[in-house]
Amino acid sequence: MSLRAIHAVLDELDADLRRHARAPIYLIGSAAVALAGATVEAADLDLLSTPDDAERLAAAWASRRDAVYLPAGAERFRSRFARYAFVAMPVEVMGGLEVCVDGAWQALRIEHSHALPGHADGLRLPTVAEQLRVLALFDRPKDRRRMQLLQALPGAPA
After folding, report:
1. Closest CA to 35 of 61, 5, 12
2. Measuring CA to CA, how many Å separate 56 from each of 59, 112, 138?
C-alpha cells in the first residue's frame, strides 16, 4: 500500500487513539519504514501498545476485529494481539509485545521516537536508529530487507 493509504488509515484511527490510548502507541513494521522515507510496500499497519491500551482498542474496534486471522511467528512473538479491518488497510495491535531471543522472552520497548505531525498526540514513529534496532531483534528475512532499505536512506546510522 502507498503512503496515501498509510495516512488514510492513520486519519481513520486518530479519534479512537485520542479517546482510548493512555500511553504512547508506536508505529512499527513496514508502514513505519515507509514513513521514515524508504520505498516499501505496507500490507498493514502495526501498532505497539500497552496491554491495557490494546484492551481498550479491542473494545472500541470489536466490530472490526478479524477473528480468523492468525499471525505467523507465534513461537517468537507474544502479545495481546488483534487484527482489525479498516478501509485503507488492516491494523494490527500488539499490546505488550515480547520477542523470544535465544530462548528468553524480551519485552519490546521503544526508547527513541517522535510524534507524527497531524495525528493523535500519543502516536509515535520510532527513529530510524530505533527501527533498525527493532528489526534486528525480530531478525526475519523481511526484517533484514527492511533494514537494508533504512540503511540506504540519507543520514541513516551505519
Report:
1. 5
2. 5, 25, 26
Task: Give CA separation, 80 vs 51, 83, 135, in Å.
Answer: 6, 11, 20
CA distances from 118 to 71, 76, 84, 121, 124 (A): 30, 34, 22, 8, 11
Q: What's residue 77's pLDDT?
A: 94
Domain 3-151 listed as CATH 3.30.460.40:
yes
d(CA 120, CA 93): 16
What was the pLDDT predicted at 156?
82
Residues of the chain with pLDDT under 70: 1
Lookup: cell for 63:
466490530
Three-state DSSP class for residue 61: coil
**13 CB burial (10 A radius; 0-12, 13-18, 19+):** buried
pTM, to two decimals: 0.94
Residue 64's pLDDT is 97
> Residue ranges per domain, the chain?
3-151
- At CA 6, angle to CA 100 and CA 112, rounded to 5? 50
